[in-house]
Hints:
single chain; alpha/beta; 5-stranded mixed beta sheet; 44% helix
Amino acid sequence: MLRCIVSDLEIYTDGGCHGNPGPGGWAFVASHDKRVHEASGHALDTTNNRMELEAVIQALGYAASVGPVRVRIVTDSQYVRNGITSWIKNWLRNGWKTAAKKPVKNKEYWMRLYDLNESVGPQWDWVKGHSGNPLNERCDELVQTEIARIE
């Protein structure tokens, strides 16, 4: 099947918690055809890494609903970017075990992310957090708002 790319979709993501574990939030800000779409959510007892993963899972789910577009994911999480672009290949080959032969943490999140990554095929980029990037800062604001709702 030939996939026709109609436009570009750029999505910034972020996740965080107060305490680790603790109450957490995730968010993404998507820019497409001069429109911006924001989404966010929270969890009562979670970890920073889980919220970073949930943010990109939700973002890729949104991207899949938009239609055939080129997708660029921008995250401030090296854990997420390195995990999905590099580490996951070995985890899959090793039956979801790390190089140290230990079970991969957050496997259920990584499995969901892997499936979405395969179907959407985004470009993955990293941005330094809290460095003044407006869309990254907006994601952080949304995350903090979500956490404040449940604290």
